Amino acid sequence: MKKYLVPLIMLLTTMCQPLSAGNSAPAPAAQSAEAKPNTPPVAEEKTPEPTPPPPSQTAEVARKAPIEALEVEMPAVKLSVAIVVDGELSPMTPSDINLILSTAQKTMAEKLAYNNISFEIKKTMTVEEFIDSSLKNAESCRKNLEDKRYSLDKEPDFTPFRNDILTFLKRWELDELKEFFSKEKAAAYKKHEDLIDDIITVYKEKVNKIKSINLPNGNSLLSPQKAPYRSYVNWICAMQGQTAYDIVLTNEFVLYDLITEPYPHSIFQKCKVGGASLKSPSRKIMPQRALFASTFGIENKLPFFDEDPAGNISHEEKQKITGMFILAHELGHAIFKLPDFYDHPDTCLMTTKAETDYITGYNLLKNNPGTCPKCQPWVEARRHYFRALELYSQKKYEEAIDFFKKVIKETPKHIDGSYRSMLADVVINIAKCYHDMGNAKEAKRWLKSARNADQYNETPAALWQTWFGEKMP
Ligand SMILES: [Zn+2]
Ligand SMILES: [Zn+2]
Question: How far does the centroid of ligand 2 lie from the alpha carbon of residue 383, in Å?
C-alpha cells in the first residue's frame, strides 16, 4: 500500500439528489460464496509453513499492550464511495452524508486507532442502476447463491441447508449464542445442533411479519418490483460484481435472506442488514473487500423497524448513529478482519448483542471511549499486514516476508470473511516477494500454497502464467 499522507479530508463531491436512507442491524459479514471459513488452510507437503495458529492463541495475545501502543503505522487511505438511492425510502441529504462519513472517520481513529482514513464520493445513482449493472458481472455468485435465497413466494425448506447452518453457527461458542434466547430455552441447549430449529422458527416469523408491511405510499416493502433490490443475496453478488467502490452508502432496506448464514444478531432483531463487509475481488485498498452501509434502520417511520418511536433522537444524531454504529463497524470488519463479537466489553466497536438496538449500541460506544483490548490480536495482525505491504513497496523483501509470516501466525482463526481467502492473499504476497527477489523456486512453492489455501482464488494461476510463461501445474 502506498503511503500518501493524506490527512482526514472528507471529499464531498458534487452532490446530486438526496439519498433516501435505510439501514438495519449491524451487518453480517461473511458469505457462503467464499470458501468454508472454518476449515484450516491446507499446507501442501512441500509448502512453506502457512500453518494457522490454534484458536486458543487469541486469548493469549489479547493480554498484550493496548492498541495505541503498537508501533506499526497504518497507511493513509482514501476510500471510494458510491451513494445509492431508493426513491421510495427516506432521502439522504448531502449534509447527512457528510456527517455520516465524518463520524465514521472519527470513530475509526477513536476505536481502532486508525487516523489516516478519508473518503471520496465518486457517484450518486439509483439502487436499480447500481444493482442491475453490478449483477451483470456476478454470474457465478448468483448461480451459487440463488437457491440459498429465502423464497418470498413459498415458505422455504431449510432441510437441505441444516449442515451449512450448523457449520456457520459453530463460528461462535455455544454460550455466546445462548445469549439470544430466553433463560429456559438456553438451559436446554447442550450443543449447536439444538439451536437450529428455534433459529429457523424465529427467522420465518420475522420474514412473514416483514412481508405484511406497507410503505406510506401504499406499496408493499417487499413488492415484486422492489424485492430484488432489497435482497441481501443480490447485494452480496452486486458487491462482488462492482469494481469501482470501497463503500456503498445507501438508504435501502435490505432483507436478510441468505438462509445458510442466519446471523443471530440479524434474525433476532429485524431480519434486515444494516451494512455488510463483503467480497469484492477487484478492490485493492481493503484487499478484495468492499462494504455497504444503510441509513434505513434509523431513518424510517415503519413501526416494526422504527428505532426511535418516541422521536427523542435528533436528525443530526441519527446520522452519527449510522456513521458510528453501522459504517465504522463495517470498516472494522473490512479493514481489520474483525468478526462480530457477542462477548466483548462495552468499548468494543464490533459488539453486536441481541438486546443492542441502534440507539443503545451508539450510546454504549459514545459513553465508553477507548479501544477494546479483546479486539487487539486482530488489529495487531492486520497492522503487520499493512506494514508488510509497505516494506514490499520499498523493495525490502526479506523484511516484508517476515511480516507476512507474522500475519499468518498471529491472525485469529475466526475473522470477517473467509480465513482461507485471507490466507491465500497473504501467501500470494509472499510469492511476489520471492519473485521480485529472483527466487523462482520459492515463488512457485508459495503460489502452490496459495492455490491450496483458496481454490477459488484465480490469482496464483494468473501470476504463474505471467511470471513463468506456462500453465500452473
Ligand atoms: Zn458486524
Ligand atoms: Zn472487541
Answer: 16
Name the amino acid, one letter, at 128.
E
Q: What is the DSSP letter of 216?
A: T
Using DSSP, state whether 415 is helix, strand or coil. coil
pLDDT digits (tens, 9 = 90+) for 262-281: 988 788 889 999 999 999 98
Cα separation of 273 and 261, whole Å?
Answer: 12
Give 78 Cα–ligand 1 centroid separation in angstroms: 22
Domains annotated for the chain, with CATH where assigned, are: 10-45+74-372 (no CATH), 377-468 (1.25.40.10)
- Give per-residue pLDDT as tens, 282-326: 998 888 899 999 999 999 989 999 988 889 999 999 999 999 999
Across 22-45, b (16+ Cβ under 10 Å) vs e yields bbbbbbbbbbbbbbebeeebebee
Could you tell me if 246 and 121 are in contact, meaning their C-beta atoms sit under 8 angstroms apart? no
Note the helical H segments in 82-217.
Answer: 94-112, 127-135, 139-145, 162-169, 174-178, 183-188, 196-211
DSSP-assigned beta bridge partners for residue 249: 83, 293
Neighbours of ion ligand 2 (CB under 5 A): 344, 348, 350, 372, 374-375
Average pLDDT over residues 368-390: 94
Q: pTM higher than 0.85 for the full model?
A: no
**Cα(105) to centroid(ligand 1), Å:** 17
At 82, which helix (H) or strand (E)? strand 77-85
Query: How many Å lie between the centroid of ligand 2 and the Cα of residue 167?
Result: 23
Ligand with minimal distance to 111 CA: 2
